[in-house]
Automatic annotation (TrEMBL):
Function per UniProt: Catalyzes the base-exchange of a guanine (G) residue with the queuine precursor 7-aminomethyl-7-deazaguanine (PreQ1) at position 34 (anticodon wobble position) in tRNAs with GU(N) anticodons (tRNA-Asp, -Asn, -His and -Tyr). Catalysis occurs through a double-displacement mechanism. The nucleophile active site attacks the C1' of nucleotide 34 to detach the guanine base from the RNA, forming a covalent enzyme-RNA intermediate. The proton acceptor active site deprotonates the incoming PreQ1, allowing a nucleophilic attack on the C1' of the ribose to form the product.
EC number(s) given by UniProt: 2.4.2.29
Subunit structure and binding partners: Homodimer. Within each dimer, one monomer is responsible for RNA recognition and catalysis, while the other monomer binds to the replacement base PreQ1.
Gene that this polypeptide is encoded by: tgt
Name listed for the protein in its UniProt record: Queuine tRNA-ribosyltransferase
Species of the source: Suipraeoptans intestinalis
PANTHER family: QUEUINE TRNA-RIBOSYLTRANSFERASE (PTHR46499)
Alphabetical GO biological process terms: tRNA queuosine(34) biosynthetic process
Entry keyword annotation includes Metal-binding: yes
Domain tRNA-guanine(15) transglycosylase-like, chain residue ranges per copy: 10-370
Cofactor binding description: Binds 1 zinc ion per subunit.
Length: 375
């Protein structure tokens, strides 16, 4: 059950009760595609850096090690040693990114594994069955994520098919949650709004899926090549047509600035690979902007990545040492940067929640953005 605790303009401070604990929103979900955060980050680290939700990928876990294996081992929570909420995305985005290896039909998608080339079929029922085997807290509906560059006619037909698939997902989840051998019989389902950059298609789709009374609603198909301005325009138009009393999730977004802007537009769930991917390349987030620790100016810098930061990297190591590790290709350097970045994101979300509660979110957003832009 989701409850709004406080509103500040359109920004929402919410609380989602789940079978694996409470999620305080707005929240950033830390992305562990194959049931682990890239960069040698363990679930014990996630506890230390105050991660609320871990996100794993349905397609990747279906291919390797196999969702049946995860089920036999007690589900993702037991497999990973993680007792807090997990969201699994449906596999749709990964399937549709395999453009040359797939064929879309009404029943689902036929495609080849990117690992060994074997033929795989995934439709709404298959995606729900895989996610039920994984036993995640929140399952995402199987949708088509079309490129934002496709024409209006294709996007319209694609959205209609996504709606039909969503109904099938809902029916299959109901069936699976009632089975006696289901690990998590309280699994939640979030639907996904699509429509490219066409506001009218987005709004029509939002109205259609809102009638299904799902556990939450996501805006998908953004941050895939369109400008930030276009993304904000779509959010301005579409979010008011999604149920305010349900969680709103902007998929695959994004930079700290993207998150700050989207919160102001009523979004309260986020995920992105940026903090871990950038960290693995020595790029770290701070309140005064992003820093590249490979730069020579940090060679003799004995300060932490950010003064006052309480992450495991900043509490114990200097920029100079971490730079040395990165240059020497020691995995510890990568790991420390990833931990710092995830801590920065998780802490920013705590600040966002506090600012909404205090009724000064707009001032907080401006101060945060000005700082990160060096103003």
């Amino acid at each position: 059950m989701y409850q709004i605790q406080k509103k500040d303009g359109r920004a929402k401070r919410g609380r989602l009760q789940t079978v694996h604990g409470v999620i305080e929103t707005p929240v950033f979900m830390n992305v562990g595609t194959a049931a682990a955060i890239k960069g040698a980050v363990a679930t014990t680290d996630l506890q230390e850096i105050r991660t609320q939700v871990e996100l794993s990928n349905t397609y990747h876990l279906h291919v390797r090690p196999g969702d049946q294996i995860v089920k036999k081992l007690g589900g993702l929570h037991k497999f990973m040693n993680w007792d807090k909420p997990i969201l699994t995305d449906s596999g749709g985005f990964q399937v549709f990114s395999l453009a040359g290896l797939r064929k879309i039909k009404e029943e689902g998608v036929y495609f080849q594994s990117h690992i060994d080339g074997r033929k795989i079929f995934m439709g709404p029922e298959e995606s729900m069955q895989i996610q039920s085997n994984l036993a995640s807290t929140i399952a995402m509906a199987f949708d088509e994520c079309p490129s934002s560059t496709l024409d209006r006619d294709y996007i319209g037909h694609s959205v209609d098919r996504t709606t039909r698939w969503l109904v099938r997902c809902q029916e299959e989840m109901k069936r699976l949650n009632a089975r006696p051998d289901t690990i998590n019989s309280h699994q939640m389902l979030f639907g996904i709004n699509q429509g490219g950059v066409f506001e009218d298609i987005r709004i029509r789709h939002a109205k259609e899926i809102s009638r299904l009374d799902l556990d939450g609603y996501a805006v998908g198909g953004l941050a895939v090549g369109e400008s930030h301005e276009e993304m904000y325009r779509i959010l301005d138009e579409v979010v008011p047509y999604l149920p305010e009393e349900k969680p709103t999730y902007l998929m695959g977004v994004g930079t700290p600035a993207n998150i700050l802007e989207a919160v102001e537009r009523g979004v309260d769930f986020f995920d992105c690979v940026y903090p871990s991917r950038n960290g693995r390349h020595g790029h770290v987030y701070t309140n005064s902007g992003k820093k590249n620790l490979f730069n020579a100016k940090y060679e003799l810098d004995d300060r932490p990545i950010e003064e006052g930061c309480r992450c495991p990297a900043c509490r114990n190591y200097s920029r100079a040492y971490i730079r040395h590790l990165l240059k020497a290709k020691e995995m510890l350097g990568m790991r420390l940067c990833v931990l710092h970045n995830l801590y920065f994101y998780n802490t920013m979300m705590e600040e966002i929640r506090q600012a909404i509660e205090a009724g000064n979110y707009r001032e907080y957003k401006k101060r945060k953005l000005d700082g990160m832009q060096g103003k």
